[in-house]
Design brief:
InterPro entries: HET, HetReg/Transcr_Mod. This is Heterokaryon incompatibility domain-containing protein. It comes from Phaeosphaeria nodorum (strain SN15 / ATCC MYA-4574 / FGSC 10173) (Glume blotch fungus). Pfam families: HET, Het-6_barrel. Strand 16 and strand 17 form a beta hairpin. The longest helix is centred in the middle third of the chain and has 16 residues. 27% of the residues lie in helices and 16% in strands. The chain is α+β, with helices and mostly antiparallel strands. Strands 1, 2, 3, 4, 5, 6, 7, 8, 9 and 10 form a ten-stranded mixed sheet that branches. A five-stranded mixed β-barrel has the order 18-23-24-25-27. It has a two-stranded antiparallel sheet with strand order 11-12.
């Protein structure tokens, strides 16, 4: 995990009126194994000579599988039994005498790190007892202190579980209610404090304590080892995350636990050793008895840990990692291989998995859609990116191979609780962070939690435009939205400008939304460095971006009431760009709904529908090309069969002349070239609108005038695809440095424009307009 801006720890003074609530929580935790006691305390500087304790070696958790030797790749132990005792009311009365304050952090130097030392216990229901100790960075870097780093999902629950933080490692752990009361009566509890943590972290620490075999466990946990309410410390520690995870003996990945009625994780974790054995491969794919195991793995890969943005850094930097799920443990390499095998075999398994979910889990109808895919799963992206992220150099050092822009854009659907970490989560692992890969005089952004979200995003966009010499970033859906409510470490809430597009509106959304299938079309500009269009020219005609970033916008003091009832400070965040206006939208249809291309769209693209026709002889060029944006799968070169495939589809129009893509797909063989064409049509048209535009002639003056409509209309109409929010009267423009046309909306009574989004305009995707239009226009985007 990494620093999040939700208040992870409830650190506050304990007033008299708060004591009964805290006491009752404490008593509930002691009497209920589901809510074990927690507390907190200050960290102390240490003397290594005072540590005669045996610490647990985390690499003992699990070893990678040697193929093809058959072995059990996991350790499994009995879960703690559930038992309760009586006398809760009496316990509360006694505990009131022992109630103490919550933990208060002591400052540490910028070259120091805290570690949590969890004390062993043979009793599963014993409260968590621990100590916070401070170490110099050098002690962790040179291996003098062995420790584990925890990777987990914070979750959305309240911090209502308790861990007891004691000042000394040798202090007697509090193991029962009576111990607590006796110590309180003897005034021995002054060095024990309570820290409130969230449920998932509590479960993780309890399980790791059990697995540590009666030894002290030195572990780094972001929510505890960083004072989340100290922005300065938080920024310093975030910059050290790379070394903290890389220098750890092991990274422990905590996926979570199943509910009592579910056995998803049990089946999946037990299945992994068999899944990665090549001797079992054919049987596992062909025999129906293994479908429930594959289905369990499919469900496990949807767990929230795989949608966290910070896990990419935590895992990529790990020298050794283990995966923990309930009481199961397995080596990350085995888990990684199982994911890779499953993803590679998914097309073979997909039909039977869909049928399995349909017959066994009727409440999971979301699995039955044709968007039953795994391509956008966080687990798959995680395996893909971590396999290629680092390259080992001859001197033994590891260098990142992927730049910041690519990491942010290609991993945009990973979520984080603090939207500023959209950028911060990748700063330590991007290519530019390597000393040998500085990008000219441009400075890589640094985490600064005193900045608001707009300041962080604006700095990132400016950095990308300056280093890439491209404006495509404003066409990509990469940004996480602003919080709904302000937190103690949020400087202010802001409204983002239209030129910062939210990942929520991307093809698959963000976080756990990706598991529900496609919601929009694929990006036309593609990932950084992979654009297949050249609307702003190529070669000597190529137009580099001409962008002005006004000075860092100061927040306007007047606050307006947001639609959700929260106060948002408004930034005047303007971006001034240069380009040419080539047309005005004169027609747009409703967004294509779930794979149906309406008749009026086909006819405007040149098709003459005739229900009585015996054959389809000719397919208009702009028709078959526009439906696939004149490119093949994922924006690559289009196959030669696309025209023929479109001709076949036109034979299968509905009685009213519409093209129902999903219906045609159901009737098409898996290997048929028509299937490839239709899947590309879906990826291009999903939730986009067909648009028609009146061209603005090259010799006409700037359109930034009241008479801009009068300068449009002559010449052949423009046709293409635009964002779902496109309206009649919007401007079709080509911005210098942008590889595709865009749609802009004039703001009435001003010289400003809203950025609506990218567009495909037939015949204007490869620099044609740049050679035709001489006069350029400045657009002020807000």
């Amino acid at each position: 995990m990494l620093p999040h801006d939700d208040p992870p720890l409830k650190i506050r003074p304990v007033s008299n009126q708060n004591i009964p609530r805290i006491v009752e929580t404490f008593a509930n935790n002691i009497h209920s194994p589901q809510k074990a006691v927690e507390t907190d305390h200050d960290d102390n500087s240490h003397d290594p000579d005072t540590f005669p304790v045996e610490s647990f070696d985390p690499t003992q958790f699990a070893l990678p599988t040697a193929i093809p030797i058959n072995r059990e790749g996991m350790m499994k132990s009995r879960r703690p039994s559930s038992s309760t005792s009586t006398g809760k009311s009496a316990s509360i009365a006694l505990i009131q005498k022992a109630a103490k304050g919550l933990y208060t952090y002591r400052s540490i130097r910028s070259d120091q790190v805290r570690l949590l030392v969890i004390k062993p216990s043979d009793a599963p229901n014993c409260p968590l007892n621990a100590t916070l100790k401070t170490f110099d960075d050098s002690e962790l870097e040179n291996g003098k202190q062995i420790y584990t780093a925890l990777s987990y999902n914070w979750g959305d629950s309240e911090a209502d579980h308790t861990i007891i933080i004691q000042s000394e490692i040798k202090a007697r752990p509090i193991s029962s209610l009576q111990d607590l009361v006796d110590d309180a009566m003897a005034e021995k509890l002054s060095d024990s404090r309570k820290m409130l943590i969230r449920h998932n972290l509590y479960d993780a620490l309890k399980e790791l304590r059990r697995a540590s075999c009666g030894k002290h466990l030195f572990i780094w946990v972001d929510a505890i080892c960083i004072n989340q309410n100290d922005d300065t410390e938080k920024q310093e520690q975030v910059m050290k995350m790379a070394s903290i995870y890389h220098n750890s003996k092991s990274v422990c990945i905590w996926l979570g636990t199943d509910t009592t009625e579910s056995r998803v994780s049990d089946r999946a974790m037990q299945f992994i050793p068999r899944a990665i054995n090549p001797n079992n491969y054919q049987a596992l794919l062909s025999e129906p008895e293994y479908i429930p195991q594959w289905a369990s793995l499919f469900e496990l890969l949807r767990w929230s840990w795989f949608s966290r943005r910070w896990v990419i850094q935590e895992l990529a930097l790990a020298r050794y990692a283990t995966v923990h799920c309930g009481s199961h443990t397995i080596n990350w390499e085995d888990f990684h291989n199982a994911i890779a095998i499953f993803c590679a075999s998914f097309d073979v398994l997909k039909g039977r998995l869909r049928e399995y979910f349909r017959t066994h889990f009727h409440q999971r109808n979301k699995y039955l859609d044709s968007a039953f895919e795994i391509e956008q799963f966080g687990a798959k992206l995680l395996v893909d990116i971590t396999s290629d992220l680092f390259r080992k150099e001859s001197d033994g050092q590891y260098d990142s191979t992927i730049n910041l822009e690519t990491l942010v854009c290609s991993l945009s659907n990973f979520d984080t609780s603090d939207p500023r970490d959209t950028i911060n989560a990748f700063l330590n692992i991007c290519k530019e962070s390597n000393s040998s890969n500085k990008i000219g005089h441009h400075t890589l952004p640094k985490p600064d939690y005193s900045k608001d979200l707009l300041q962080v995003y604006r700095e990132f966009v400016k950095y990308v435009v300056d280093t890439s010499k491209s404006l495509n970033i404003i066409c990509r859906y990469w940004a996480l939205p602003e919080r709904e409510t302000k937190t103690p470490t949020t400087p202010r809430l802001v409204q983002l400008p239209t030129w910062i597009l939210l990942v929520d509106d991307s093809a698959f959304g963000r976080g756990e939304e990706v598991y529900h299938g496609r919601k929009a079309a694929d990006s036309l500009v593609g990932l950084p460095g992979a654009s297949q269009y050249n609307a702003s020219g190529s070669g000597w005609l190529k137009k580099d971006p001409q962008v002005i970033f006004p000075e860092d916008p100061a927040p306007i003091e007047d606050e307006i009431l947001g639609g959700d009832g929260s106060n948002h400070s408004v930034h005047k965040a303007m971006l001034i760009v240069t380009g040419v206006a080539i047309g005005i939208v004169s027609f747009r249809n409703q967004p294509f709904a779930d794979g149906v291309i309406p008749r009026d769209c086909l006819e405007k693209l040149g098709w003459n529908f005739d229900w009585k026709a015996k054959a389809v002889k000719e397919v208009p060029d702009q028709l078959w090309r526009t439906l696939v944006a004149d490119r093949g799968p994922k924006g690559q070169a289009k196959p030669k069969t696309y025209r023929l495939a479109c001709q076949h589809c036109l034979v299968s129009l509905t009685r009213n002349g519409h093209m129902n893509i999903k219906e045609v797909l159901r009737k098409t063989e898996d290997s048929n070239y028509t299937k490839d064409y239709l899947e590309r049509v879906l990826a291009v048209t999903w939730d986009r609108s067909f648009i028609e535009g009146l061209p603005i002639l090259p010799e006409q003056p700037s359109i930034a005038s009241e008479g801009r409509r009068s300068s449009a209309g002559a010449g052949k109409k423009l046709v293409g695809l635009g964002p779902r929010k496109t309206q009649e009267g919007d401007i079709i423009a080509i911005l210098y440095g942008c590889s595709v046309p865009v749609i802009l909306r004039p703001v009435t009574g001003t010289q400003d424009h809203e950025f609506v989004g990218e567009a495909y305009i037939h015949g204007k995707m490869d620099g044609e307009a740049i050679s035709e239009y001489v006069e350029k226009t400045e657009f002020r985007l807000i």
